[in-house]
Design goal:
- This protein is mainly α and 142 residues long.
- It has one domain (8-127).
- The chain is built from four helices and no strands.
- It has helices at residues 12-24, 62-81, 83-87, 90-123.
- α1 crosses α4 (90-123) and α2 packs antiparallel against α4 (90-123).
- Bound molecules: zinc ion (ZN).
- Zinc ion is lined by residues 28, 30-31, 33-34, 47, 49-50, 52.
């Protein structure tokens, strides 16, 4: 295992892609070795390999949003380009596409969420940087 470079030693595009690829592989964005998840979508709070605090990143709805965006484009493309799909019985189209889309969604969701967390790692976006202004909190000084 190699020691990860400090953020200052990495160029931003390299760090961005590195975090994203590590997240897509469902690995810790900091070391790329430890598992990012303790379950299907539950984040391992502390990396078991490097000890990085992965609980500080909040993917929230970004993972499902981008997953829907990707799966939606995969579903709509063939519907637009292959006329036999329009002419097929509805029960056949629904029966064949829904299981495919469900499996694809379940496969992509943790990877896309991991990529979002990897990008947050690369951009140093952390939970503590978010201030709840509705509770009367003030934004942190710039
Ligand atoms: Zn790690």
């Amino acid at each position: 295992m190699s020691e990860p470079l400090s953020p200052a030693l990495q160029s931003e595009p390299n760090r961005f892609l590195q975090g994203m690829v590590r997240g897509l592989k469902r690995r810790c964005p900091n070391c790329g070795e430890g598992a990012l998840y303790a379950g299907y979508l539950k984040i391992e709070p502390t990396c078991l390999v490097c000890g990085h605090d992965n609980s500080q990143y909040r993917a929230d709805d970004a993972g499902p949003y981008f997953t829907i965006l990707i799966v939606g484009h995969i579903a709509v493309g063939p519907l637009l380009f292959f006329p036999f799909i329009w002419k097929a019985p509805v029960w056949w189209v629904v029966g064949t596409t829904l299981p495919f889309l469900a499996v694809l969604t379940l496969l992509l969701l943790p990877r896309v969420k991991g990529a979002v967390i990897g990008v947050q790692w690369a951009q140093a976006v952390r939970k503590s940087a978010v201030v709840d202004l509705s509770a009367g909190g003030a934004p942190p000084p710039a």
